[in-house]
Design brief:
Largest sheet: none
Order of helices and strands: HHH
Radius of gyration: 38 Å
Strand content: under 5%
Low-confidence stretches: none
Number of strands: 0
Number of helices: 3
Helix content: over 70%
Mean pLDDT: 80
Shape: rod-shaped
Length: 152
């Protein structure tokens, strides 16, 4: 049976993993929200660009400055999307590496527990052997020793 320290350690590890996982999920959710928001802004900018271009072609009035400004805003939003996607990829890679590391640590823990169980079994066998030897070996009591001395 596991002792209290082992139980506390196991529960502590589980709590830490849960907290860490919740933080990671919050980070990912935040990035996804930011990605959707940026995409929505990008759609609005493309819509504006289309309206300005349509106006310019229909009215033959130049909107070059507004179009250039909108194109710059579109480029900035596209760069922002690239950065968000890079962060998502970094988090995915980080999560993968952590899962591999956790799996390796669990395998080591299981190996250690198996070795401890084997050592416990060896200890139990040793104790059983000692008990059997003790049963086979007669124990001299004080009375027997006194009787032997009187007979001489």
């Amino acid at each position: 049976m596991a002792n209290w320290d082992d139980i506390k350690t196991t529960v502590g590890r589980a709590a830490n993993k849960t907290i860490k996982k919740a933080g990671e999920l919050a980070d990912i959710a935040s990035l996804r929200l930011k990605h959707k928001s940026t995409k929505a802004k990008l759609g609005e900018k493309f819509e504006r660009l289309g309206r300005l271009t349509y106006k310019q072609l229909k009215t033959e009035i130049s909107h070059a400055e507004e179009i250039a400004k909108t194109i710059t805003e579109i480029d900035e939003l596209r760069n922002e999307l690239k950065l968000i996607n890079q962060k998502v990829e970094e988090l995915k890679k980080q999560r993968y590496e952590e899962r591999v590391k956790d799996a390796e640590a669990e395998a080591e823990d299981e190996e250690y527990e198996e070795e401890a169980d084997i050592a416990d079994d060896d200890d139990d066998a040793e104790i059983a052997d000692e008990a059997a030897e003790a049963e086979e070996t007669p124990v001299e009591t004080e009375t027997e020793t006194t009787d032997s001395a009187e007979e001489e």
